[in-house]
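Why do we care about 3D structure at all? Because function follows from shape, and shape follows, mostly, from sequence. That is the central idea of this module. The next example makes it concrete: a single protein chain, its amino acid sequence, and then its structure expressed as tokens.
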Amino acid sequence: MNIFTQKLKLVWNDQVLRNRILFVLFGFMLFRVLANIPIPGADVGALANLLAGETGDLLGFLNIFSGGGFANLSIALLGVGPYITASIIMQLVGMMSPKVKEMQRESEAGRKKISMYSRLMSVPLAAIQGFGLLKLLQSQGVLGNLSTPELIVNILIVVAGSVLLMWIGELVSEFGIGNGVSLVIFAGIVAILPGQIFTLYENLLVNPSDIPLYALFLAMAFAVIYAIVYITEAERPIPISNAKQSRGSGRQTGVQNYLPLRLNQAGVIPIIFAISVLIFPQMVAQFLSVSANPQLASIGQSILSGLANLWIYGSAYFILTFLFTYFYTAVTFDPKQVADNLQKGGSFVPGVRPGMQTEEYLGNVMTKITLVGAIFLATVAVLPVVIQGITGLQSLAIGGTGLLIAVSVTIDLVKRLDSQITMREY
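And the structure:
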């Protein structure tokens, strides 16, 4: 407790660190204000009924990405979903294009240019998603019969809200602490968690026989939190030797240290990517299911019925999370670059030749430990869906996903804050 108090005093007494934390809180406050400004013609009561219906999973995950802005039919209806989709596209392009890949790795100006492309791409994506979502809500009676000018105005409003949230996230990343976009999602989850807990409490009052299920869910929630923290902190240390030559005798001496490779290098990003990919076909299918064309309506209903099967949905969620874990790890960790940096610094892995052999060794180790991290992350991701299939309670699945994202973002934020404190202590 004494160490914790000392760190709090250090944070408060350091003006730069204090201003960064206050800026994050200001960003949260501004985001919550936007999430409570409704768009014109919104019927929140009709949306509440829709959230409790068959489309609850899709709209519940949309509500997570919008940070509660969807449930209020606010101008932050789309949240940061379009920006995340644009980031996925740009990272895929970086994997396929050597030029873009070089820009991502070598130059700070290149990375800024990639970020600019992602921001620009998010605008048309927000327009497309906004149009589809507004037409879906209009077909479900949540929005009235909007004329074409009114529909265009609403699309412009939700696009502007999404761009504004993206801007807030970028500002938090630059002037605050942590990843701004992840923190925006985290702030929305924290804001809607009390409402979900109250809903579970009301369900418990109506069905007291579900107490064992809720107790089991609570126990699993604590176990999952512990496992997330444990896996996130787990590392595979690679021994590194730094050869130094003594001037007097010419003898070689070695300085031994370690290169830590994280078991879960990707963090919570694969889950966010997987959800964003799963949302898109469901949204398109929901839109097609209410089409006047019988063939399109039949296709939409078929896709929805397939995704409504928890086994199909859970399998797709598991596979996407697993694949995105490897994908994002490949984006953030380059064995060739690490091997080159070690060789340039006069360091080497004992028993492994510098250069290509070191690159292959690091790649093999990273592949093996990422397998463990990917299986764990995918299992934790689909665990709430399994619980929903057993209990039939939809809010448990959505709340579990929100809990997973919130815990992972909290761990990342605490580690970044602790690194800032450690740097100032020295």
